[in-house]
Amino acid sequence: MKAKMIRAGHEAAVLLLALTVATANPAWAQAQSGKARGEAVKVEDWLVPYRSIADRIIATTANSGDDFAWDRLAFMTDTFGPRHSGSPNLEAALRWAEAEMKKDGLENIRLEPVMVPHWVRGEESLEILEPFPNQVPLLGLGGSVSTRSEGVSGELLVVSSFDELNARQDEARGRIVLFNVPYTTYGETVRYRGAGASAAAKAGAIASLVRAVGPPGMRTPHTGGMRYEDGAPKIPTAAIPTEDADRFARMAKRGQKVVLRLKMNARFLDHAPSANLIGELRGSEKPEEIVLVGCHIDSWDVGTGAMDDGGGCVVTWEALRLLKNLGLKPKRTIRVVLFTNEENGLAGGNAYRDTHRAELEKHVLALESDSGVFRPRGFGFTGSDAARKILTEIASVLKPLGADTIGPQGGGADIGPSVTAGKIPSASLEVEGSKYFVLHHTEADTVDKLDPKDLADNAAAIAFLAYVVADLPQPLPRP
């Protein structure tokens, strides 16, 4: 019964939207009447008036030489480098972006204050003591405690899962545990990065290491956040490259004794002031209703944060600049938010939810770009069936960019708190992502890995989708 009532609600929402659009959009009315007569009418015919807008947006990015967004990203990452929470780099980048948004002519630009955690990596190293001395690349995991000044030394124990650690718990005491878990999917493999230290500590280990969460990538370790379980001892933890994890696994299989010395000088400082940066293209008829497009401007403290998530910031921001320059002003407001502190705290996403709680019900759609800005493929979406149908039709216009698919799930860490609190339909930019987790959270995350045309096409796709959703006669139907 409940399912039937929900389905009926979706059908009613679609009917209401169709009737409303019919008044404002003759092409929609013609398409619907043709269907009623049994004529073969394409489902996206109501979008005919918007096709010329898509053409203008795409032509603008192509005619600009495809380089504006890439050049802006290159300037940001070349100049400010990595933008870790609490760092002067992040705060300088935020103020630069604020000034640039003003030059772009966006509206209601402001920095909304947020206090963020401040973890500092410090010096770190991993050395093989036995069988023969040599250095191993590593990156401490964000939030890890430090070692003693002389480091911690111990024999290595290699395990391939939490279950194997439990089975070999007696062997773990006093040793350094390595979780050598080959990458499958990020969601499956990242749990060893997040929970490995506490699992190893409860077994009596003195430190823990984790295989880089990603495919092999030229011996590059991947950093990222971790968490300590309440009540478990806090031991230092770091990531090593996939190549070295496999090396240690081979040595263990041969029965070779491996002794390591880990040194980490990581520490937490007091929380630091930061901000979410907001800019808008104000709606012409319903400015209080909002289509949010967002990203996170902070990054880890390695590489220059070009892919994660500087590129996401530039393409969402660029979407508004494109619409502004073309004189396209939809009925609703399109708001870009450059969130702070996604990587090690989510303070920016939580602060936005709390600051804007009263207007969350007026958010029509929240879209996040945080999976790289490689070749666009479309958008993931989470919401009602009725809203999915509308977005699928909108995306069909983006076929020339290859961005015409609507995937089964959409959202993001930064928009997540607001989406949950306000029951907002959520979307995410989807791209050809084969390189993403090779570069993710590594020293190799630099702008040269990104193609200017890909950035331009992603910005165009976001601009068109956001514009049409913001211009619909009625908001997207909620679940």
Description:
- This protein is α/β, with parallel strands linked by helices.
- It has two domains: 45-116 and 271-471, 3-Layer(aba) Sandwich (Aminopeptidase); 122-265, Glucose Oxidase, domain 1 (3-Layer(bba) Sandwich), CATH 3.50.30.30.
- The protein is built from 15 helices and 16 strands.
- An eight-stranded mixed sheet has the order 1-10-12-11-13-16-14-15, with helices on both faces.
- Helix 12 (385-396) links the parallel strand 14 and strand 15.
- Helix 11 runs parallel beside helix 13.
- It is elongated and about 70 Å long.
- It starts with a helix and ends in an 8-residue tail after the last helix.
CATH homology-level superfamily of the largest domain? Zn peptidases
Q: Would you identify the regions where 5 or more consecutive residues have pLDDT less than 50?
A: 1-24, 26-41
> Which structural category do the helix and sheet elements fall into?
alpha/beta
**Main sheet overview:** 8 strands, mixed
Q: Tell me which CATH architecture of the largest domain applies here.
A: 3-Layer(aba) Sandwich
How much of the sequence is in beta strands? 15-25%
The largest sheet has its strands arranged as: 1-10-12-11-13-16-14-15
CATH topology of the largest domain: Aminopeptidase
Number of domains: 2
What portion of residues is helical?
A: 40-55%
Oligomer: single chain
Average the pLDDT over all residues and give the rounded result. Answer: 92
Quick one: overall form? elongated
At the first level of CATH, the class of the largest domain is Alpha Beta
How far the N terminus sits from the C terminus, by CA atoms, comes to 16 Å
Radius of gyration: 25 Å
SS elements, strand count: 16
What's the number of helices? 15
